[in-house]
Amino acid sequence: MRRDALEPGLVDNPALHADPLADATIARILGPGQPGGPDMATIGLLNREIARWQLNGDLDGWRASPGLPPDMAAALEAYVVKARVLPDWADAAKIARAEVLFMEMSMASCTLLFCASLPQCYIMPDLAAVLHAAGELEQHTDYRVRATAAMIFPVMMHGGLTAPSGGGVAQAIKVRLIHAMIRHLVLRGDVAEALVAPRRLPRLLTQAKTMPQVLYAHGWDIDRLGLPCNQEELGYTLLTFNYVFLQGLRRLGLRLDQGDEEAYMHAWNVLGAVLGIEREQMTDTMADAERMFTAIQAQARVLQRKDDPRPALAGALMANIQRYLPLRILKPFPVLLTRHLIGKASSRDLGLDKRVSLLSRGLFVLVFGFIRGVDAVARLVFPGFSISRLVTRILGYNLTVKLLMDETRPLKLPDTLLGEVGDAVHAWHNDDKAPRWVNALERRFTGRTRPAAHQG
User: Fold this and answer.
1) Which end of the chain is more exposed for a tag (fewer CB within 10 A), N or C?
2) Is the pTM of this model over 0.90?
3) What is the pLDDT of residues 65-92, one digit of tens each?
4) CA triplet 145, 147, 151: central angle to 5 degrees?
């Protein structure tokens, strides 16, 4: 990346680090930036080719399709050989434990995805700016959320990172290459060249209609923002899916023990390595994660934009969740739950601190306080008892089935993986840690009955 050409003191700045392997691959395929806009034909051909990466086993000895341009074929084949390898510090036992934890959390995991992890993703102003420019969340909220779920499920299901039949690695190296494509398009050329001569790229007047064209037209101030999708941002995003998730469980009264928390963080760190994130941008404990997360958010607030896109993004996400809630009095609950999970400062950044009807707010406080009180007393007799778990499972079930598992809009996953995701969701009809009457109550509120395949 010719970092020796950078000014002293900037070499160790993670905002100026990207992903040499993926960036070099994309630069080799797309070439230098063109004044007339991105090469849509080449981008389309590239997207069709990487769509072949479906299961981890597909990457074994992978070869490009016949007829693909030789430079693209050679670049992709070299990329797959290097990108598919797990780091040497990966611990299979910890990854397996994290998979079990994800399945045990089941529907609560989905609630935390929508009301904690995704909202915290939009705190970073420059990340939000790219999403805003592409209309990626305001106009296509479902797509963005479903695309995130399409990576999380393959990674966290059994064997997602370790088995040939899993799909976590295959999905991750596609996302990694897409990040590199975003950098290339936003910077309109080679990332390494942009690093040597940082500059502000002006916005182009364009009638862009496709996402690559929009990204190409979007201006970027490298001096102020660093590289798009840089290591600091990637490390922060990783924290939203391990640290923020685990912190959310704690705030719901569902805290895991230290060994389980660290196993969960480890699995996501392994995924981070496959995504091209440097080890220095990862943390192994909740305490270290909190320090890094807080520091990155504090720095992000210094870079606050006048035309802040974050409230619009968060508002679109909340509105999308609210339309799946049946009663008007319950509509503000996703905002109120998100406030509780992400805290006052982040809620303010996202514009989620606006007035909520007194009736809805009072009901939320009453219900939440009642749940925590009952849980505290009941656990003196039944250690595994949790109404909080029940409520988050009910909300998570409705969001998962209606938003992610709609048969008219299936997740973009290989048929084998899509079937496994469906089986996993149906298998979540019972909470193994809850008494039978709690499971019966949950089925009553979700309208579910036991699927025939799981009766016994």
Assistant:
1) C
2) no
3) 999 999 999 999 999 999 999 999 999 9
4) 115
